[in-house]
User: Fold this.
Amino acid sequence: MNNFKQIDVEPKLASAINPRIGLIALSTDFTIEQDFRRICYNLPVDIFVNRIPFDNPLNHENYLKMADHLPNIAKNILPDQELNTLAYGCTSGTVAIGENIIANQIYKSKPNTYVTTPITAALKAFSNLNIKKISVLTPYPKNINETVFNYLLKNNIDVLNFSSFNLNYDSEIARVDPKHIIKTIKDMEYADSDAIFVSCTALRMVEVLQEAEDNINKIIISSNQSIIWDSLRSVKINDKIANYGKLFLN
Assistant:
């Protein structure tokens, strides 16, 4: 054929089958997107990701800057299309900005979407597993840890002890050796706790969570584990998923 000639054929458009989960990840986060893919692999769900501008180091001022970006970042996850769930991926950022503010900012562009955050999901996990007393491990600097501590207390969670790697950059947090996380958890004081909460979406906890949980015979809840659990349960995917802690077997 020397001249272009198009043959029009009738398309057959299928309706969307899988529920849609949107993820707002920090521009500096190396980990949360990988954890969503790791746990949701082969599940009947579609994951769509957009990244929100964030400047390290970790501090209150930088967290608050994210709030104004949320409507546009959410809007640009499948523009003009509905999402079933939208997960905002920053634990300490949620504590700084506030769960309600984050949800209301997202509703400006995705009004019919279920919104979750790591701290929202962790608190649901605590309630689901009847966890009242926890030991906490984070990678954050001290001033951020104090805000997380106070937030947990405000939500009627008794924090028995609090450990931290005292890091300021997500690039450093993502480089913490997962095997070292296991050792750190093993060395923590957790005997009187119902569970250990490992906070931060950038920390590579999910990939060793089951090993760490088996090692100490104690429930472990992490930021990424819990937000993925809450996201999946919100779209009625109730499968028991092995190798990611007791939470996913509940």
Observations:
- The longest strand covers residues 20-26.
